[in-house]
Amino acid sequence: MPPSKKTIGLSELRVGLFVVIAVAVLIFLILNASGDINPFARKLHLRAQFINADGLRAGSEVRLAGVKVGKVDDVKLLPPQDRPDAPKVEAKLSLDSSIDGQPANERVRSDSTVSLGSPSLLGNDKIINISAGTAAGQPVKENDLLPSSTGNQTMIGNLAGPEVADQITGISKNMNEITRKINEGPGTLSRILNDESIYDSLNAALIDTQSVIRQIKSGQGTAGRFINDPAIYNNVNDLSIRLNDIAEGLRRGRGTAGKLLTDDALYNKINALADRVNASINDINSITADIRSGRGTVGKLLTDEAIYTDARTAIARFNTTAERLDNVVSAAQRGEGTVGKLLTDDQLYNNVNQLSSEAVKLIYDFRQNPKKYLTIKFQLF
User: pTM for the full model?
Assistant: First the structure.
């Protein structure tokens, strides 16, 4: 039996066309609401060239000072050029014709620059950020080529501006240069990283350290005995117990040190002694003040000008008297005067010496025969 052919009626065809048209309108409205498709909106088309696209693709966002204003229509490679730093990629940009109520070419001017950036620190998507133009620049025209900046912007660059992004790029370049010098240079860090002899030395030191640790664990040597010998632990424990007993005794006031810490009477005596010392210091200060003000004997001695004048006069008289005595002694030494002759005349010395000898003989004779000198002859007639 041959298969029967199902015919489609006009009403069914109308329903199907209505559904297709409704789905198409719905898709159009969704895309129009998202801003991706709007056939009635005019666009400003610009171009930007870069050395490296760095993952930029069609559909990527285009931002003006961080605000989304369009998208990337196409990314294509440029023909090879002689200069190594020449741009190698060109991106076609599609911007909204009106930005915040003003024409796009009034916002984007000839002194605006474009740069590649990333909307996040960890994301791989790329965007193109356009710097806002100044009044010195001219309005851009359709399909103009915007100059590109050398720095790549990340999320920080989008938020803080191209200057901060350039600084971050410079820091990154410096870090790369430092890393290259460390890897390739003759410095200390390069030798530590690349010299196998240093690695061998560190490995040998590590092996020696492990050997020492094994010896310590096995109780060998001073450190091993200190860690493993229970006698040392017991001695330290006994010492700790004794120190605790001493501390407890001090807290309870036992012994001289304990009394010094806890006896209130001793504290009161020390406090009283301190009061006496303070009183003595006050008295000394008072006496010092009296002396400075010239009161009392010591004060007058220190401050009275008359006493100072009398003392100077007495010293002058003493100096005069001492000078006179020096003159008398000098004259006596020269044999002048009676004292000088007594000191220097030999004849006078001999006479005195002879007289002394006679006196000695007289005394000796008197002692031998005192009657000779004590007998008195009395004769009346």
Answer: 0.35
